[in-house]
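Re: [help] complex structure
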Amino acid sequence: MSENRAFESIETTKDDLGEQQYIAGDEISTTVFLAQQLGKPLLAEGPAGVGKTELAKAISGSLDRPLIRLQCYEGLDETKALYEWEYAKQLLYTQLLRDQLQETLSGTKSLAEAADRLTDEEDVFFSMRFLLQRPLLRAILSDGPVVLLIDEIDRADAEFEAFLLEVLSDFQVSVPELGTLAAKHMPIVVLTSNNTRELSEALKRRCLYLFIGYPTSEQELNVVRLKVPDLAPQLARQAVELVQSLRQMDLRKLPSISETLDWAQALVTLNIDNLDQKTLETTLSVLLKHETDLRKVQRQLSRMGGDEEEETDWDDELRPPRRAE
Amino acid sequence: MEERIVKFISALRSGGVRVSLAESADAFAAIDNLGVRDRDTFRLSLRATLVKDVESLPTFEELFPLFFGSGEPPPLMNMMEDLSEEEANMLAEALRQFGQQLRDMLERLLRGEELSPEELETLGQMVGLNHADDLRYREWMARRMQRALQFDQVRKAMQEIMELMAQMGMNKQRLEQMRQLVAQNMESLREQMRQYAGQQIAENMAEQRPEDHLDGLMDRPFQALSDGDMQKLRQEVRRLAALLRSRIALRQKRAKTGQLDAKATIRTNLKHGGVPFQIKHRDRTIKPKLVVICDISTSMRHCTELMLSLLYELQDQVSKTHAFAFIDHLEYITPDFQGNRANEAIQQVLIRMPPGYYSTDLGHSLQNFADDYLDTIDHRTTLIVVGDGRNNYNDPRLEIFKKMARRSRRTLWLNPEMPMLWGSGDSDMLEYLPVCDRILQVSTLSELTAAVDQLLVEK
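Output below.
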């Protein structure tokens, strides 16, 4: 294992992330570097599928640290996020150790004495052995430095957010039976949010903020080239242009970079060498995830594609009138 | 530099961005780390630490160049030295016909002289720049400064000069060159004034003490609210919504752990040999469904808007909200709220449904509802009417309202008027009253918040 690797500067951050096939702009690399330097969690916000989760993976890859992921959902609570006692295992052990217990307790004169002896042994049952570690605790107790990804925090309940504040601010938790457990290494924390609800001020205050929007066509093309190298350059450019123009439309769910990549992959798999009307119609469903969007775009495309003549007619009207003699 | 950053932060605050003390400390820590030499890195480090909202990003991007320089305005070109003697004479001739003031300005444009700081200051004072503390006034201020410099007359005069000189036999190409140059110079001056106006406003913003933005607004009646007050209250609504949300969520959660579910407990504990290690509770709470019918006529607008903002901030605590708005007829407005802030959504609705004088007709609107949307009410729905019950002496259509109330789980009415006034004049409130389960008087934001809290309590 490499010793504690860290990003050295903004440029190396960018390069290191690039090596993990993650193309980071100045914004992303600066914020990631800052998050590491200041030891603050990084809150990445933006539409779905622009590579927020990917960023955490790239960080973990380039620093050679394991990634611990906590996926949030409605109803997530401490027992799922932090720790839980393994009741079943405890029960099993008490059953199996019954003879041992009998022995320990034999020869006691009073009930109080027996209880005292039992208390001495109590620690056996409430020790790390029976503690089921959930992602947060795993990140805190891990031997080496890790990257902790708390994915889609906006889906968790507001109370969970409040609980998270405590963990994020000093990276220690108290388990009543065991005492306070503090982190050996400060993990790099990445939180992602799709902005489906407003996060609390308190949580935002503790984080560095990074908004990842849709990429420019140049960036997107680079990503497509990197991730789907088999796609012909000409086709890649066309595809990216089309996706970019789709983002200008009023759709229910705009295609993200992840959809572009899926689509590019689909084009490669289907051995397509030219983006014609038919290909578009058959593969568009990879890009658009709503029936209404799909129909809207198909209508738009057929209007753009087929009737060139109509367009010239329309042009005529815009042409300046001939000067009168 | 530090002082500059502190000023910048305080300008951000007065621009409506929430920046806490901890965050500004972070900003300084970030700058300690990365330095200020690279302008872009500097901008990004400030942005990552100070701005935590997509909506605040534009404010940041607008203010940043005003505090930390954004290249000088494009330089002005001197035309005069380029002229031949003959041309200069022609120009002098042409200029002679204008008044002193205008001539000075024209000459200055031709010479390409920029405005000195003193001149800018005087100009600023003339147009009242030192009272402006909102960047929305920037363009307006810049335009007023241009007017003070008589830009319009100058443009006209320039036209005349060109024509005159053409008559005097000046080379056409040269003239065109000159015209372009002057236009460019004017553009540069305009940019200089724009920058100056922006900087001044930003400074004013920085000096403005962040006022305590509630001073009694919570308890001020809706009718007495100005637009500025509403702006403040809109921000407050978000904070209140967050508060309410955790209250409601907690309530639902606690309710969940209320009753023992014996069946489920036995079933899950079979694996422990029937020893009840894991206790299961009954999931009793169901999130309420809401149907909200709102009066958006002029008298009710503020109340309705704040009410709807609150409700839409709390969407995750409600299983479904159907919102309707009416003045003289009813419209389904839920789609307007998708991806919009409540005030924008209300604006949109108001464009579709312009308020007229004395046109409120609840009876007709109820008829619309019964015709088209009655199926949105079922036994789990809480029906909420926000309105003053003033019906302009139209038929109140009580029978429809009764039918709706019967179908729903409960019926609430939020009325901003005092109970004393109910039934007076064209108010049909007293007739609707017995049909409702509850009537809450909501004339201020604090009352409104309490009412929303109430209505999300499951009965």
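The first strand of chain B starts at residue 289 and ends at 295.
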